[in-house]
Amino acid sequence: MAKTFAGGVHPRESKEATEASKISSIPPPELVIIPLSQHTGAPSKPLVEPGDEVRVGMKIAEADGFISVPVHAPVSGKVKAIADFPHPLGRKLPAIQIENDGRDEWIDRSGWSDLTGASPDRVREAVKDAGIVGLGGAAFPTHVKLSPPEGKNIDTVILNGAECEPYLTADHRVMLEYADDIIAGFKVIMSVVGAERGFIGIERNKPDAIKLMREKVSEEKGIEVSDLKVKYPQGAEKQLIKAITGREVPCGGLPMDVGCLVQNVGTSLAVYEALKHGKPLISRVLTISGSAMESPGNFEVRIGTPFAHVISAAGGNTEACRKLIMGGPMMGIAQHTDEVPVIKGTSGIVLLSENDVRMEEPGPCLRCGRCVDQCPMRLVPNEIARFVEKGKMEAAEEYGIFDCMECGVCAFICPSKIRHVHLMKQGKAELLSRRKKNG
Ligand code: SF4
Ligand code: SF4
Known about the structure:
By secondary structure, this protein is of the alpha/beta class.
């Protein structure tokens, strides 16, 4: 039986339009915008000034602290501005704008020596230096995950190839097209944290990837492929750990509390490329799809490329386009402009037409209990939402609002169309601002 977790839902997969689409490259535009904040943690600090010449792979902003990463030039050319630009998080944020000279001249990497067998500390340093973050969407700095605190023993690493969000197939294609490099990166990650067991978790709707990965790891000691039930949010860290190992991450806890580390398949590839070839994270693979996209597909795109350029280079959108999302439709972020750039966490761009965009007004809670039955975090979403609406923030906190991972299962299943995720975000923001005020 395929492995899974309790709760969850089955949204329409909508992956057929791109799952067979091989990854192709979108040439970078004339102007790229590289935000200083593309990761969880402190924004990076610029190392360049307007007028400076840059080459591909050059570090243009440095990490500001341990939980931070540097950013690198994705094109060669000249720095045009350092200013606030539209950001996929919904507001203008500081970014470095570069005028592309079209020459695609890289920094000199001829002296690079293979670091895949280097000491754990050297690997962590190189991974940080390459600006690598989790590519599944959360964008947490990878070197931090590779540095568990003293006393936390990691015995299991899980490579996340679940890709449970509708429409997205980038991880699927990356597994099919870069299997050897992903596994090489995975082995380094396992060795850095000293884990004896490794699992590659893949949903059953990707049988070709399961087959290929099984063939590739057949000779690898301690690594196996877990086929997972097709269910959302199967790719969420805690649900993946529960499904594969049976271990339960405690409320407010982290995977390392149960001896696990989870990395996305694309992150493993980025780790390998950084260590083997000295390639910093200047591009990523993403899916562009949705009912309002003319030619859906999977593309390697330079970080900093505006969505408008990606959409047009991929074939353009239809006139029926009503909604633009970064990521998938369940956990993605709706965009109000296509001027925002691709950032390290952009796993997909989804464009939806009228028929797929329901904007029904929420009705009263029917107390049907569906949201409670299906919440993968075993919360009581209807009650938490009610507390937030009524301003009863202490009660919302007591009911575990901070354990909500904003997966959208409750909103998806609710017959009254209550906007739980919006209320969860609002409640958390309110509580955090109260905490700040009270010191
Ligand atoms: S959004 Fe939060 S409350 Fe709703 S199902 Fe997901 S984890 Fe549970
Ligand atoms: S699913 Fe909607 S209507 Fe049913 S209990 Fe939850 S919030 Fe209420």
